[in-house]
Write a structure and sequence with these properties.
single chain, 282 residues, alpha/beta, Metallo-beta-lactamase, Chain A, seven-stranded mixed β-sheet, six-stranded mixed β-sheet, 20% strand
């Protein structure tokens, strides 16, 4: 009887320890991140802010100064961990230099553009040069750099505080967050057959498509269609590179919706409201 009591007591201790330890494994930070959502906000033009399930902040194209639709001021961006800059045009670079200096954020950009950021005072350690075909694995988040059919640079005779003469290859970004949710930010790329390769390879859940004032709706529609190639995950679309009130002749969300419908693509488009919060989960 005594042996049985000792045995039962040992089993009870093991069960208690298991109950104490198991929640850490099942419901610890890494596991919780799998079930939490990504927060998305639009601040005008191409400036999106993502807050990851574990609180990491990623910015795209923080164009504030000289942006008539900017919903925030530079000094209001108090936290940023990564800034993704796809090319060397002034509206894509925006206020990256000031924000990087203020927050210590790391800047992910093509190689030559990264060199320009360093020349403007962004510490070398904060500049992560990545050309198309590269990736950044960081704090549970993976940023894949893909190509972009677009220019990069001011095209002027000298560098300025706004943009370099030449910013290297233009890029786009596939961002996969800790919960597995993936968004494709193509930069300012026109539709390219390569998008079908990236859609099939990385299977993004959302796409922030280019909708510039001179954009061709059919090109926009083809870009979306290409990203659905071998990719059943694409369930959300949002525009970028547009004014709150589009000028006459500029494509609108309604135009893109009509084009996608004509192609048989029923993926909903979110027409973002500045500073409104949108939540996404895998």
């Amino acid at each position: 009887m005594r042996s049985f009591q000792l045995f039962a007591g040992s089993i009870l201790k093991v069960l208690i320890v298991a109950l104490l330890v198991t929640p850490i494994g099942l419901f610890g930070p890494a596991a919780q991140a799998q079930t939490r959502e990504v927060k998305l906000e639009w601040f005008g033009w191409s400036f999106y802010r993502f807050t990851s399930p574990t609180g990491k902040v990623i910015l795209t194209n923080p164009f504030i100064t000289r942006n008539p639709d900017a919903a925030v001021k530079v000094e209001e961006i108090a936290k940023a961990d990564l800034i993704l800059v796809p090319n060397g045009h002034g509206d894509e670079i925006g206020d990256t230099v000031a924000i990087a200096k203020n927050t210590g954020a790391k800047v992910v950009s093509p190689f030559e553009l990264g060199t320009w950021f360093v020349s403007k005072g962004v510490p070398e350690a904060q500049v992560l040069r990545r050309n198309p075909g590269s990736r950044l694995v960081w704090e549970g988040i993976t940023v894949r750099v893909v190509g972009s059919v677009h220019g990069s640079g001011s095209g002027r005779g000298a560098d300025s505080d706004v943009a370099p003469i030449y910013g290297g290859a233009a890029a786009g970004f596939m961002i996969t967050f800790e919960n597995g949710w993936t968004v494709y930010f193509p930069g300012s790329s026109a539709a390219t057959q390569d998008m079908a390769l990236w859609g099939e390879a990385y299977k993004p859940d959302a796409m922030i498509f280019l909708m510039s004032s001179t954009g061709e709706p059919r090109d926009i529609g083809m870009a979306v269609k290409l990203v659905t190639t071998g990719n059943p995950n694409l369930k959300a679309l949002l525009p970028h590179h547009h004014r709150v009130t589009p000028p006459p002749g500029a494509p609108t969300v309604a135009d893109v919706r009509a084009m996608l419908d004509s192609m048989g693509i029923r993926i909903p488009i979110t027409d973002p409201v500045r500073k409104q919060v949108y939540m996404f989960a895998k």
